[in-house]
Amino acid sequence: MKNYRLILLFLLLPLAAIAQKNDVVINGWTNIGTFKCANDNFQNSRSVYSFSGNALPNIVLKVVDFDCRNKVMTADFRKTLNAQAYPTLTIRFLHFEKVRTNFFAATVEVKMMNVSRKYNIEFSEADGSLVGNKRLKFSDFNIVPPKKMGGMVYVKNEIDLFFSLALR
């Protein structure tokens, strides 16, 4: 009987790990469509985050790990964020508090291209992950959104930063 319990435990453990997911995605818009750039390396990490006490997360992401699922768009995204000169994008939690059951408020510092901005972000807890998003602007970080074909195709100034962090 003990052996069956052990086997069942080992079979169910991977399913519990799947529910917890790390993800950082930047969603944006052009005058002709949308784009979505995900940090695949972070998504595949097995990091688990704690939000208790003073040990709040500081997430450092490599810009070259973002993939927009389109070779040209990915290259343009990395060029826009000047990945060679500024190889990382940092998300640092400064303050975190529970507002009500499964809902939280946080102050987060986002650093891109050596420019830091603080944002208040609401998060919710679902399936062992903390999920939230915030609308930012390229101009917040002194970034000029790219234009192509003599300005006929352009990226809009607003982007959405989406988080999903596996909780401890």
TrEMBL record:
It holds the Pfam family YceI. It comes from the Bacteria. Keywords: Signal. Transmembrane segments: none annotated. InterPro entries: Lipid/polyisoprenoid-bd_YceI (IPR007372), TTHA0802/YceI-like_sf (IPR036761). Residues 57-165 form the Lipid/polyisoprenoid-binding YceI-like domain. Residues 1-19 form the signal peptide. This is Lipid/polyisoprenoid-binding YceI-like domain-containing protein.
